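User: I'm curious whether this sequence folds into something compact or stays loose and floppy. Could you predict its structure so I can see for myself?
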Amino acid sequence: MVTIGMNYHVLEGKEDVFEGACLKVLGVMQDADGHDDSQIFRRVDVDESAQYLIVSRWSDEDAFKTFIASDPFKKVTSWGLENVLAGRPRHTTYQEQ
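Assistant: Here's the prediction. I'll summarize afterward.
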C-alpha cells in the first residue's frame, strides 16, 4: 500500500470551483484500479490562496501513476492550471512499511 499526498494552491475566489472539480475526480478515482481511499482537506491562510491536500491510498505507486497519466485526470489538471490553480500541484509519495 502507498499513500499519495497531492498538494494544491487555489486562486482566491476559486475554492468552490476547485472543490466541485475535486469531487468529480474523487468519484473517478473510486473506480480506478488499485485505488483504496481518498480524502480532501482544506487549509486557509489569511494572506495566501487556499491550500488543499488530497490524501489518497493506492495498492502501489504504479496504480497511481497510471491514474494520473489517464486522459480524464490530464483534462482536469490542464483545466485547473489555466483557471483555478495558483501553481503546479505537488505530489508526495509515502511508502508504508
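Summary: The beta strands are 2-10, 35-43, 50-58, 90-95. The two ends are 9 Å apart (CA to CA).
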